[in-house]
Amino acid sequence: MSDSTFKMTALSKQIKREKLTLKPHGIKGHFNLFTGKSGEYWVSIVPALNTSGYGKTEEEAQSDLQYNLNLFCKDLFSLKPEQRITELKKMGWHSDKLFRKQFSSAFVDENGVLQNFDFPTEVKKTSTELEAA
Known about the structure:
Elements: E1 7-10, E2 18-23, E3 26-38, E4 41-46, E5 51-55, H1 58-76, H2 81-90, E6 99-101, E7 124-132
């Protein structure tokens, strides 16, 4: 897991439900990704994985997010399989054939806008497929 990197692929349509599949040596899933300005910095965040990145440009924020997603996956797979599930449950995922999670209302308002950015209505929301193996 230490040498793997996340592959991020933008999806052509918005996803209705985020999902995460644990594979023997990695994860794959569909997640919402938010990018916007907060102060002088750009922030990119995948709330469902509690992972973000920031930078002076949008590209730097995306690059930092990629780095932090790799750390997330490396840390997750340093745990025993049952501990991985426990940690994912702590993050709000629940077991089914797939792990599923809805956003906490603390992050998204009734219009589906991610809060805590300086210009919440200008925040870009994209659906992305993430995979690390």
